[in-house]
Each structure stands twice: as structure tokens, then as C-alpha cells.
Amino acid sequence: MSTQTLTRCYRYSLVDFEPDLNLLVWHDHSETLLTQCESNLLDLLCHHAGQVLSFDVLGSVLITKFEPYEDKSLQPANLYDLLTSLRQKLHHHHQSAIPIESIQPFGFRVPLPNTTCRQFHRSSDAPVTHNDLSAEKRPLIPETLSYHQAIILTLTLIAFFLFALTQI
Fold it and tell me: What is the largest CA-CA distance in the chain?
């Protein structure tokens, strides 16, 4: 009996990346296990595919993903080492499955995946696609809008409290 796990998947022409399992599943059904750090980095890049993410943003987001009880020796020495090791694992049969572009001096990006989906990953068999979300388009309004709304709300509340304090 095999165990099935419903996972997120970014599907590219040569590989499926399953961030929930820290796994690259190649189309020849071979698999490459990523470290947690590599998976977090690739997940972040794929989630914002097509967008250039600065070195500072990547570093700050990855640092916050570490739990205080995690073994610090498993963390990469720096982001460059992490990018190098990830790029090596993304090469398969002399091809880069998910190219990580370096846009100097701004940051890094990966291309848009062919599809995003949820699929059942069987531990003993090849993954079986389920509930394909490829028809689902990326939203026209960027996800960062909620971040901007939070800033506007915070500034509004600060202004309100300052106004209230001046009236006392």
C-alpha cells in the first residue's frame, strides 16, 4: 500500500517542483530531493515567477522561515552558496530545468511555470495529477496589494491616534 499526499506543484517543461515535499520530480520519473533551504528559495522564486526579487528580499524571507529549534548547521553559509547548490540540482541531462536568472544589479527571477496544480504524490509510484489548476490565471491585482493596504491602514490609524492625542 502506498501513501498519498496532496501537494502543490509548479510544472515546468522538464520537471515538476513540489515545494511541500522538497522534491523535484523529473519527467523520466526520477526524483531529486532538495534541502529545506533550497526548497524554500525555489518556492519563493516560483511563487513570484517572472518578478525580479532582490538579494535582500530573498535573504530576509529565507531567514524568517527558519525555526529557532532547527539545527543551524543545516543552514547555508550564505545565499550565494544556496543559489549555487540549487542551480546544480536543477540541471538534468545537461539542461537547466528551471533557470534562475541573475538580473544585475537588481536580483533574481525564474520563468513562469507551464502550469500550477495540486497533485497526489505517491511514495512508491509516479505522481498522479489531481484537480489541475492550469486554467486558473494569475490575478490581475498583485498579491502585494494586501501588504500595501496594511501599510495604508497602519498609517491611517497612527494619524487618527495622533489627531486624538492633540484634541486632549
Answer: 72
